[in-house]
Amino acid sequence: MTNNKISDIKISVLDLAIVRDGGNAKDTFKNSLDLAQQAEKWGYNRFWLAEHHNMQGIASTATVVLIGHIAGGTSTLRIGSGGIMLPNHAPLIVAEQFGTLATLYPDRIDLGLGRAPGTDQFTAAALKRDEHAAMEFPANVQELQMYLSEGNKNGRVRAIPGEGLDIPIWILGSSTDSAYLAASLGLPYAFASHFAPAQLHNALAIYRRNFKPSDQLKEPYVIACVNVIAADDDYKANKLATSFKKLFLGIITGNRQQLKAPVEPDEDFMDPMEEAALQQMIQYTFTGGPEKIKKELEKFIEITQIDELMVASAIYDHEARLHSYEILGELNKGN
User: Fold this and answer.
1) Does the bond joining 161 to the residue before it have cis omega, within 30 degrees of 0?
2) Which of 48, 205, 222, 296 has its CA 20 to 30 A from that of 72?
């Protein structure tokens, strides 16, 4: 099927469990659960949480625990990792953890896997991450698949629970390496175009061209993640987006901070070089009222022919963030 409209595809949520300025992790977790419950009502398909470490503005460090919390407070939404940074963990531990989740919440758990550390080099060392871990990622994915397979029941090392539970595995990526891997293993592919837009089109082409059917997946399946900041009109959305821009500017400059309250859209808070770097990083960010959002997202969907759209929305005010996802949910229904 050709995807040209936002109502043609499934939409999902990527929650970074962002801690806003003046808030704390407890507030963040409460808001994450509230967002998941509302997203379920609005017809969203998945709710994924990302693994990051040593960042004062992100609270999703114990990703598996948070997935369990969100899954326990919802009933139909698929909950998963976007993703687990596999080189930080032994494959057996991941198999056991997700086997436990999938036992508690059958047919609702997704296991998205990435190869990056999700942090800085010092924290990676504290996580006991091996310096060659990224190179071992393909082998570790296959080891994890083995533990989760029915065929491992006679293995000397088994994941219980986990074995034979048919937990969907996704390969996440921001480069072409991940595209080749997802294609060769016949796994669904999720691209992080919300912060790494440069290789999106090349990676999708590589994945589709090289895809080999597997027991899990017969045809290529692609998610692209983008940033969406929607409001009742363009001005309100542009004001909300100033929080998001400051957050990403902090990543670029190395001055990471918690999510700040929005300022007026025309307030000057970065120099031209910073703005150019920021615009390059957030190329796939869609900001505006419903009509503008719909038009721009449908152009993106038509060009990429993705199967599913995943949305991250770094918005300071919780009610405003809920409203942004509500607007997108209404557009997805074709209203």
Assistant:
1) yes
2) 222
Helices (H), 84-233: 91-104, 121-126, 137-148, 176-185, 200-210
Task: Give the separation between CA 113 and CA 111, rounded to whole angstroms.
Answer: 6
Pick one of 3.20.20.30, 3.40.50.300, 3.30.70.790, 1.20.140.10 as the CATH number of 6-332. Answer: 3.20.20.30
In the numeric block, which tokens belong to residue 110? 């997704």
DSSP-based three-state secondary structure for 62? coil
**Whose CA is closest to 312, among 50, 108, 64?**
50
287 forms beta bridges with: 229
Residue 162 to residue 169: CA distance in whole angstroms: 13
pTM, to two decimals: 0.94
Token pair recorded at residue 122 = 């010092």
Encoded amino acid at 216, one letter: Q
Give the integer Cα–Cα distance in Å for 250 and 272: 15
Residue 14 near residue 225, CB atoms below 8 Å:
yes
Say if residues 50 and 63 touch (Cβ distance below 8 Å). Answer: yes
Contact between 229 and 241 under an 8 Å Cβ cutoff? The reply is yes
For the chain, give every domain's residue range: 6-332
Q: Work out the widest C-alpha separation in the chain, in whole angstroms.
A: 64
